[in-house]
Structures are given as C-alpha cells and as structure tokens.
Amino acid sequence: TNPTIAALSYLLVVLLAAAFSALWVAVAASVAAVLLLNYFFMPPLRTWTIADPQNWVALFVLLVVSLVASNLSSSVQARAREATSRRDELGRLFDLSRDILLTTESEHAHLRLAQSIVRRFDLQYAAVCLPGTPGWRVHEAGEGRFTLPREQLEAVLEAARGTLEFDARQRTYSGRQTIHSREGPAVDVVPLRLAGRPMGLLAVAGRTIEMGTLDALAGVAAIAIERVQFLEERKTADLERRSAELKSALLASLAHDLRTPLTAIRVAASNLQAGWASDEQRQAQSEIVLAEVERLNRLFQNILDMARIETSAVTAAREWVTPEEIVEAALTQVQHTLGRHRVSAAAAEDQVVEVDPRLTSAALAHLLENAAQYSPRGTTISVDARAAASGLTIVVEDQGPGIPAADLPH
Fold it and tell me: Residue 188 forms beta bridges with which residues?
C-alpha cells in the first residue's frame, strides 16, 4: 500500500530489464511501470485519473529515471559488445598474420592468402584482385562465387589512386566501395595499400566487418603480397647464384677436359717429328692423336649440347631401341680410348625401350671414357644394360681406385 515502495520496486524491475535486455524492452518496461503505478497506487485507485499534482511529478520522475537508467545500461552493453568484437577481430588479424609468416613458398601464395582470410574471418567469399598485363588476376576462395565486373574494379582502383583521406570517427581510409550483385549479398571492396600506394583490391562478402578492421585486414593482406614478391625475388636470386656457380664449375671442368687431350696431341705430334721414333712407335703416336681428336670432337659436341640445354633447344627424339644398340653406339664413340682395356658387354637383344638413342649413348660413352681414364691399363671394364618396366638401367664397372670417400658427398 506504500506508493514509494511500489515505485522503487518498479524501478528495480526496469533496471533489471535494461541490464539483461535490449533498449526497447527497458523503455517498454518504463512506460508500463508508470502506468501500473498510477493505476494501482495513485489515488483514486484503479482509475487512470491523477488527482494530486504531486503524483504527476512522481510519475514523471519515475519515467525519466527509468529511461535514463535504461539508456545508460544499453550504452554500457553496446560498449562491451564493441570491445568484445574488437578483441575478436584483433585475434583474427593476429591469426592471419601468423598464417602469412608460416607461408614460405611463393607458388599459390595469393590463393592461400584468400583462403586464410575466409577461414579466419568466417566469410562466405574473399578475393585478392591484382592488376596485371593484360587484365586482372583474381584469386578467389570461399563457398560463394561472385562475378566481379572488371570495369568496377578499375574504377575502384582508379579512385584509390587519388588523395588519401582518413576518417577519424570511422577509423578508416577513403576508397572503400560496395559492389551489389544479383547472385548474392553485396561485396565490400577495399584497396590494398602499401606505403599509401594502392597495389590491388580486396573483396569480401558474407559477414559485416567493421570499417577500421577491414582497412587493417587490407593492410595485412598488402604486406603479405609484398612478402610473396620478396620470396619470389629471393628464389630468383638464389637460382641465379646457383646457375653462376654451376657455370663456373662447368667452365673449370671443360678447361680440364680440354687441356688433357691437347697436351696428349702436342706430345704425340712432337714424337712423330722425332728422328729416333720407329714405324711402330709412329703408328702408336698416330693412334693417340686420332683418339684424342675424337675425344675433342665429343667434348665440343657436349659443349654444344649443353648450350642447347641452357636455351631449352634440346628435345628428346624418343625411339624404340634395344639396350644392345645403345651399348654398341657408345662403344663405337670411345673405341680409341678403350683400346688399352678389355671390355665385357652384356646387353639385352630381345628387349626394347623408348629413349633418345643419341643422348643416351652419349651419356654412356662419357661413363666409359671416365672408366678408361681412371682404371689401370689392361683391366676389364664391364657394361650391363637391361630394360624393365621402370625404364633402362645401365651399370658401368671398372677396376680403378674409385671415388675417394671425402669426395662422395660432393
């Protein structure tokens, strides 16, 4: 029966409604509390009539206090939700940054970036759009599929190249646009800026992302794209360095291989001019000259083949041949070099394999020449060639000292 206790009770109900419900629920509770207080506790009771002017003041104060408390509670809840949302978005940005740092290969890196954005930000669609020559390179990910008009992408990128403006209230830069599509929800497009310069566009759809967070996401994506470019440049530089080292090693090897036959030819030619040489000795020196000239011819042919390989001008001319034909062709090429050794050849005659006979026999001839050079005179060099389902297998064995154990890792 005490109106003061009733008013405070109603106010408590309104505060609880404002603390645990939306603002409109608290406002409705405030209006209902004023009406109920008037009807049940303000004389005359059980009527909507207000006889005492002081009751008007009490009802007005109750309504104002209820509305102010409801608004304050709603503001606190909104701030709490905003803080939670920003914390979650910051965590998503951190996870995306970690995904970018774990990417060590430049191949398909842009597609993986789009996939990481979709996964970390729970989006239906994301696309990394980079201008190229010609046209755009669009790397898409997500369950949704949208057609991004290239003319609109050009317009967004051209607008982003203008004056860079920052909205302090929205915490975002200018240039964000929305592309509406008949296929699904609208697609938000934001420039990918690096040092203030637009380098591409990021398109996302499926969930509303706060404007400042979307700008931060675009900044992280731009850094990821620049990192991919650095990885590609480092890979190219590493390949060039390794290519230069290989060329230096090839030049040193060729210089050594060329010096050996030239020295042998010069010594043999000097012996041919000597007056003390007999006919048999002259014949032996002539054979040395012929063998070394043949060896030089093969070396120059190898140099030409390597030059063609360097320019991708060598194509394998595959033919069906027997292992015996490959071995015979190789032995013919190095018959002068093998003259001081016994050769044991075992090659299949009833099997065929599809290879390039010229390149394969040249490789085998090189092995045979090495075996003759590094094994004692009069020893046996054996060749075994077999064809199987996995291909052609050739084994060359000699009785030389072998490769030193210290050199095997190289």
Answer: 178, 204
Tokens found for residue 89? 């978005």
Confidence (pLDDT) at 117: 87
Tokens representing residue 185 in the block: 């929800």
Tell me, what amino acid is at 322? Answer: T
pTM of the full structure: 0.49
Which residues does residue 384 pair with via DSSP β-bridges, in sequence order? Answer: 346, 395
Strands 342-347, 187-194: pairing is unpaired
Tell me the pairing of strands 187-194 and 177-179: antiparallel
Cα-Cα-Cα-Cα torsion 33, 39, 43, 48, nearest 10 degrees, comes to 120
Tell me the two tokens of residue 50: 């207000």
Amino acid identity of 254? Answer: L
Nearest Cα neighbor of 179 from 191, 171, 187, 170 is 187
Residue 127 near residue 140 (C-beta atoms within 8 A)? yes
Integer-rounded Cα Rg, in Å, for the chain is 43
Cα-Cα end-to-end distance for the chain = 102
What pLDDT shows up at residue 184? 65
